[in-house]
Amino acid sequence: MKFKKTTLPNGLRVIVVPTKGNPSVTTMVMVETGSNYETKEQNGLSHFLEHMCFKGTTNRPTALDIAREFDNMGAYNNAFTGNEYTGYYAKAENKHFKKILEILSDMYLNPAFPKDDLEKERGVILQEISMYEDLPQDNVWNVLGALMYGDTPAGRPIIGPKENIKRFTRQDFVDYRRKHYVAGKTIVVVAGDVNEESVIREVKKNFSAIREDKKAAKLPVKEKQKEPAIKIRKQKTSQTHLAMAFRAYDAKDKRFFALSVLNSILGGGMSGRLWQKIRHEMGACYYIHSSHEEHTDHGAIAISTGIEAARTAEVVKAIIEECKKLKEIPVSDEELNKAKEYYLGHLFMHLETTHALAQFYGLEEVTSGKPQSPFDIEEAVRKVTAKEVMKVAKDIFKNDKLNLAIVGNISDPKPVKKVLSFK
Fold first, then answer.
1. In this predicted model, what pLDDT tens digit does every residue of 105-119 receive, in sequence order?
2. Exactly one of 32, 38, 41, 50 is catalytic; which is it?
3. In Å, what is the CA distance from 126 to each residue of 133, 141, 237, 260?
4. What is the per-residue pLDDT across 282-332, written as a single tens digit (0 to 9) for each?
């Protein structure tokens, strides 16, 4: 799991993660742009562009040409878009490394944006939006984003609104790609049984024509909050889904490790505090999760669950009580060690494949600029003390960092608002 990062003269970064004896190789091309780089009028363009890069290039005119070449190698390929990144990847047998890199570079550098395919894909994305709108457990995260960050890039959905999707033109894609898909914002990650020198040589050859314009920046995220905030989207569902979030830290903050342990104490498996309280003792839910995310300039820890509408206030109060305990009572050595082992065990198990390793290092580079290996993270996590966990809990579990998003059939929000407080 060791890695080597190289920055080429044009600014393009290459990260090689050698995994000796592994039969597969994953190549991933990431660009530092996503929904947080979009204007309101552009919202959804990063994601739509990701789709269009599969629809043909100047060298491979159709989507079928691209798909057939990947399939002929037995490769798996896909892409993803986030707030601050877009990634394209392919995974195949080691012997196909050069070919999958060449195809990915062609998709990244030479997309054709065929007009006919643009219209077809427009319909696909509109259906994707409709699908998420029909899934309250997914939709609640869009409600949460709007609550925490308002009408700013960070508060808008990655997929964008339907009205934007309906009016994007081919020129919009050309202009956006020209601005953001440049060498200084591009990262190529290769994980597998590969030779570092060979990887660097192939990347230089395949990305020799990449543009070298200056990096386009994004507006920084500004966070302002004085009291608990709540946003409810009424929807007739048999279950009410909620996401409670607390403003936390960006990816460069050293408190990340204590926050990770705290998150594991709350949501770490079936012995985690939230599972034991909300599901086991109260029988109030089927699932309850705790997660945290870190971006370049902001972060949050969030608790999500699906419950009966009539029990919403009761569950919200119980979740806050569990968070409050972490502020007031030191975690025992036994629970602290269990939380560390749970977090680290899942970290290493998650990184068993070349695809997971490529994505891990790519995201580390995008968010922090200084990737850490899992062993570096393990060393830091094992040093976390109960005092540090309590300090983080006292810092984030406050009324001026408390947010609650709800999607469901809530008839009267007053009881929920009443218990939404640490006072």
1. 999 999 999 999 999
2. 50
3. 11, 18, 22, 36
4. 999 999 999 999 999 999 999 999 999 999 999 999 999 999 999 999 999
Residue 251 carries which DSSP code? Answer: T
217 C-beta neighbours (distance < 10 Å), count? 8
Taking the CB of residue 141, how many other CB atoms lie within 10 A of it? 19
146 sits in which H/E element: helix 136-149
The phi and psi torsions of 257 (rounded to 5 degrees) equal -70, -40
**Residue 409 in contact with residue 232, Cβ under 8 Å?**
no
276 DSSP 8-state letter: I
E-strand stretches of 32-169: 76-81, 86-93
| DSSP string over 158-214 | TT--HHHHHH--HHHHHHHHHHH-SGGGEEEEEEES--HHHHHHHHHHHTTT---PP
Amino acid code (one letter) for 61 = P
Which contiguous run of DSSP H or E holds residue 33? none
CB of 62 within 8 A of CB of 123?
Answer: no
Which contiguous run of DSSP H or E holds residue 376? helix 374-382
For residues 166-183, average pLDDT: 97
Which residue bears the tokens 């798996």? 76
Neighbours of 368 (CB within 10 A): 16
Residue type, 182: V
Active-site residue flag, 196: no
pTM above 0.85, yes or no: yes
Yes or no: say if 187 and 13 are a contact pair by the CB < 8 Å rule: yes
- Cβ(59)–Cβ(110) below 8 Å: yes
